[in-house]
Design brief:
The protein is an alpha/beta fold. About 30% of the residues lie in helices and about 20% in strands. The N and C termini lie close together (about 10 Å).
């Protein structure tokens, strides 16, 4: 089969690789019909994960048709059309039974690596390095799906692939980020980053009852997409002198009720602190650039919440923890428990409350994945979200 494979920093190649096989009686084999490049994939593309190996198959946002199942799979059969969550969960461990699916104890065979870095491990993840299990990803013609009964969700025939694909990751991720804000009637939510996850966080905040959303970015096409629905104000942070002060002025001097950092480890900024982060990261004295996180903490009102769907990988510097303590902020973060949200969000799609395909700007054949990665990483041609077609 053909697959998008990682070979080093900014080196993705489409190659012939061996077809996946049933390895466990709970496995299914999926023929991929649609897959996507996630912002998190760019962290691998940019070389920020040291446990990638040459030839690793990328991708964790995918869906397709079941072509084979293991003997113990009971809910699926060949011909079923399914979407698959990016985290792999067993369904029976301490965390799965508490609906903390992305923290599954049984699906990362390399948990010892993550435990060495973070003291604990997440679940295994599709296409996201050997730190998270070394599983082959979904940017391929076929994918092996472990614990298929637990993860793969059958989707109705009346919905297109593009309408349901993002149940695999970014729609639940944006929704959980908004849900973590504990939104109350009248609340104002500020969202840093209007990439795909930020776009879904914005729309999810509105679905959950926010009265106002303030979307923050520097790319006009992202801000325009964010503003497409009512109830959204936009801020280009390159066009204001002091972003935190501007947010206070927009919220009666208090600050937003909750702030969502949908940027994470590769944040861009124009301040002295942003240049400080870039220098320290280039010298391997800091792993991530927490520019958006600092601003979210500084801007959030007293007693508010900072929600962090943006990925952080290691150690960050000069986080204003004293301000967070003084203001009594609540922090909520982590890998998304996608399984928890797939069915409820599918209902939103069926009711036409949202059509997730709005975020797609580019459709490119899998064979051209290297070009698609460059386009997405360099934000060329107004690229916000790219899907790879078979």
């Amino acid at each position: 089969m053909r697959a998008a494979c990682w070979y080093g920093t900014r080196d993705v190649r489409v190659e012939h690789v061996e077809d996946p096989k049933i390895l466990n009686p709970h496995d299914a084999i999926i023929k991929t019909t649609l897959t996507a490049i996630c912002g998190s994939d760019l962290h691998l593309y940019d070389g920020y994960n040291p446990t990638m190996q040459a030839g690793d198959i990328l991708g964790h946002e995918f869906m397709g048709e079941v072509v084979d199942v293991g003997r113990d799979v009971t809910s699926l059969r060949p011909g079923d059309r399914v979407v698959v969550p990016f985290a792999i969960a067993c369904g029976k461990c301490f965390y799965c039974t508490r609906l903390l699916w992305s923290l599954c104890d049984n699906t990362n065979p390399n948990a010892w690596m993550a435990e060495g870095l973070y003291e604990d491990s997440t679940a295994g993840l599709f296409g996201y390095s050997h730190l998270f299990g070394g599983y082959a990803g979904g940017q391929a013609e076929y994918v092996r799906v472990p614990f298929a009964d637990v993860g793969a969700l059958k989707v109705p025939g009346e919905l297109s692939d593009e309408q349901v694909l993002f149940l695999s990751d970014i729609f639940p991720t944006g929704y959980m980020a908004a849900e973590n804000c504990g939104i109350q009637p009248g609340d104002t939510i500020a969202v840093w980053g209007c990439g795909p996850v930020g776009q879904f966080a914005i729309r999810s905040a509105l679905l959950l009852g926010a009265s106002r959303v303030i979307a923050i970015d520097r790319f006009p096409e992202r801000l325009a997409m964010a503003k497409r629905d009512g109830g959204v104000d936009v801020l280009n942070y390159e066009e204001v002198d002091d972003l935190v002060e501007t947010l206070r002025e927009m919220t009666g001097g208090r600050g937003p009720d909750a702030c969502i950092d949908a940027v994470g480890m590769e944040a861009h900024g124009t301040t002295l602190a942003a240049w400080y982060d870039r220098v320290k990261q280039s010298m391997y004295l800091e792993t991530d650039r927490p520019i958006a996180l600092r601003e979210a903490i500084q801007a959030c009102r007293k007693g508010g919440t900072v929600s962090i769907p943006g990925v952080y990988s290691g150690v960050i510097d000069k986080v204003p923890i004293g301000a967070a303590f003084t203001k009594g902020l609540t922090f909520k973060m982590g890998q998304t428990h996608v399984h928890r949200y797939m069915r409820p969000l599918l209902d939103h799609i069926l009711r036409r409350a949202i059509d997730p395909s709005f975020v797609i700007t580019h459709r490119i054949p899998l064979e051209e994945a290297p070009r698609a990665y460059r386009l997405f990483q360099e934000k060329q041609d107004g690229c916000i979200k790219v899907v790879l077609t078979s």
